[in-house]
Amino acid sequence: MKKEPKILHIDMDAFFASVEQAYNPRLKGKPLIVGGRADKQRTVVCAASYEAKALGIDSGMSTQQALRICPDAEFVSADSAKYLYVSNQIAGMLKNYSPRIEQASVDEFYLDITGLDKMFGSYLDLGMRIKQEIVRRFSITGSVGISVNRLMSKIASKLKKPDGMMIMPREDITFVLKDLPIQKIPGIGGSLTAKLHDLSIFSFSDMRKFPADFYEQRFGKIGLWMYALAHPELIADDEKINWINQKPKDPKSISHSYTLVQNIYTRSEIEAWIQLLAEMVGFRLRGHNLQANTVHIYLRKPDMKFIAGEKNFKEYNNDSKQIFKRAIFLLDKLNTRNVEVRALGISVKNFMPATNNFLLADAQKRYQICNALDKINQRFGDWTVYPASICSII
Description:
Helices cover about 40% and strands about 20% of the residues. The chain is built from 15 helices and twelve strands. Helix 11 runs antiparallel to helix 12 and helix 13 (about 265-285) packs across helix 14 (about 320-335). The radius of gyration is 22 Å and the shape is globular.
């Protein structure tokens, strides 16, 4: 008999702030604000420690407002290289527990642990062992959820934040989630929440009162997804997961995306995130010794709708700076005025082997710079060296 899937989701607690506290023990136990820029008077809170959250400080708030709430709060500017390095180290550690792992974002991971309870004693023991090793090795905490698929395991972990753990078997889902507000369900953003509230749907239990055609007629495919998540008996085996060890040797495309902690609105914020993603894509392209001529970008709004653009460029390239310029060219063609962005991504495709033969001296110089940076990052850890402008985004 086939074992029911067991997916473990681990979500780091106040990740950016916790990493800063781990690197600087003086900050532990104190209200801490991680700002997007070094100038704390002209930036926003991109992360707050739980001590700061307890006072009412949270992501997206201006630092001026946050410091009015707590004038004695500690402030540090974001260090994306540090967070990416710790994230990759955690991913490497998690591979020791399961060969099937997906890094969903910089601070959250999924593991297929189906059948591993016998090896570790129980699923509870496995989850606790992972949590304890993260504390021991990185001096930060994470919350763990275990259930039958990604969505339910993610909900379980969020219900027990911070530093908690929940195992939610299929048969317990309806009871455990019956009073859960719909806005607490991953994937249901502000726009969908407002529409559901207009239909007197406020909780998980309310979602179960309506048939599938009700949701399909009003919301289309997303409606059918909402109907399915409200009926655990319909949950199939876990949906497609990009397990790290299953990535093809010869990729058909290379992409990076990120779901933001807080929605962003300004062009400068969008461009900064695109630059970070372009750096990541370029690094992987060069690692495969490939170059591409097609660039695709997308912005996802809170209502799950996408704004996207794609273009085949004449020249093949694997320079992160050129990928960034091409992505900005596409961004200029999109209508992003007054757009609220929840997630964004870049992908490249249509590959050919990188020849690394350049007619122009500038192109040769750029190749040498990229090659040198890649070697440093490979030796000392991802994002040991990175563009200074990226400091301002997270």
